[in-house]
Design a protein that fits this description.
Keywords: ATP-binding, Nucleotide-binding, Transport. By secondary structure, the chain is of the alpha/beta class. It folds into 2 domains: about 190 residues, Rossmann fold; about 55 residues, no CATH class. It is about 30% helix and about 25% strand. Strands 6-7-8-3-9-10-11 form a 7-stranded mixed β-sheet, sandwiched between helices. A 4-stranded antiparallel β-sheet has the order 2-1-4-5. Strands 12-13 form a two-stranded antiparallel ribbon. The longest helix has 16 residues. The C terminus is likely disordered. Bound molecules: adenosine-5'-triphosphate. Adenosine-5'-triphosphate binds next to strand 1, strand 2 and helix 2.
């Protein structure tokens, strides 16, 4: 394990890509007594300012760990994480506090975790502004405006217990955007809701993105959400594996595999199974792509691989 951490530290370098969020070779190891869990194993991710994107992946793949780090609640073991110019590994206590109050907003899955039960919706939204020094009168006006933009103005004087789950989550989006964060993080915000309420909450997130200017990262298992964003990144075993890009309105999904900064890629599991790829594989340089062949495939006739430079002559196993 130490080797993994050392390698990640050695690989520290300025990320080539600009982005509002840049994760570079991010590692998070949880140690409990005798057990070590590698929740993030060298994760790379770049999110451009203004994006509204989804993170998906099997349970335990590291999604919540990543969001906790980006929200400033947790620290990575190694690697680099930059958000809006803040180096999350180097931040001291004071900067971290300011970062959590102003730069990022967070919406949790559990509706009860987002709002204080004894405050009205308006008071809940106004509260974060108290901690950033916004004058009292301005807080109320901004809170009312946010509730209006997010379609829950009619809830302003109700307490959370008097709101439906979907209304609570929309108010939670207003709370999370009260201090105009550059980045809005949401962990399964529609997880406890029916389809109609989930759609309303996602519409609120989209408004936070389009009208309030927040860059949105949403962890979700909900196909309704992942099917509507332009980019969905899949995390597998603590790394980003594939990305799905869609056109406007979710049209024309196309799946890509992500090549990390060291040139490594994770093949989709169904390709690995379908072509019996195990352990050692043979790579071939084709004129316009790279071929991946199971070990044991006959040595290609030409210098460039089984198909030769003129194109395929047979089934193409794992062409990438
Ligand atoms: N505080 C912790 N201590 C020890 N192990 C942890 C801790 N938090 C998470 N893990 C482990 O880290 C791995 C990644 O967990 P994480 O919660 O990030 O996954 P996830 O993709 O969000 O899963 P889910 O979709 O179920 O929420 C899991 O194996 C989990 O058991």
């Amino acid at each position: 394990m130490r080797k993994l951490e050392e390698r990640a530290r050695d690989a520290l370098r300025t990320p080539a890509d600009d982005g509002l969020v840049v994760c570079d070779n991010l590692v998070r190891v949880y140690r409990t007594d005798e057990v070590e869990v590698q929740a993030l194993q060298g994760l790379d991710l770049v999110v451009e300012e203004g994006e509204c994107m989804a993170l998906v992946g099997a349970s335990g793949s590291g999604k919540s760990t990543l969001l906790s780090i980006l929200s400033g609640l947790d620290l990575p073991t190694a690697g680099r994480a930059l958000v809006a110019g803040h180096d999350l590994l180097a931040m001291r206590r004071r900067e971290r506090l300011g970062y959590r109050r102003r730069t990022v907003g967070f919406v949790w899955q559990q509706t009860g975790r987002n709002l204080l039960p004894y405050l009205t919706a308006l008071e809940n939204v106004a509260l974060p502004m108290k901690y950033t020094g916004v004058p009292h009168r301005k807080r109320g006006a901004r809170a009312a405006e946010l509730l209006d933009v997010l379609g829950v103005a009619y809830c302003r004087d109700r307490r959370p217990a008097e709101l439906s789950g979907g209304e609570q989550q929309r108010v939670a989006v207003a709370v999370a955007t009260a201090n105009a964060p550059r980045v809005l993080l949401a962990d399964e915000p529609t997880g406890e809701l029916d389809t109609a309420s989930g759609e309303e909450v996602f519409a609120a997130l989209r408004r936070a993105n389009e009208e309030l200017g927040a860059t949105v990262l949403v962890v979700t298992h909900d196909p309704l959400v992942s099917g509507q964003v332009r980019r969905t990144v899949r995390i597998r075993d603590g790394r980003t594996s594939t990305e799905t890009l869609r056109g406007p309105g979710g049209a024309g999904a196309e799946e890509f595999t992500v090549l990390d900064r060291a040139g490594r890629l994770q093949l989709p599991r169904d390709y690995v199974d379908r072509y019996g790829l195990r352990g050692r594989v043979r790579l071939t340089a084709e004129p316009d792509h790279v071929g991946v062949w199971p070990d044991g495939t006959d040595r290609p006739a030409g210098p460039d691989g089984p198909t030769g430079p003129d194109g395929p002559t047979g089934p193409e196993p794992g062409g990438t």
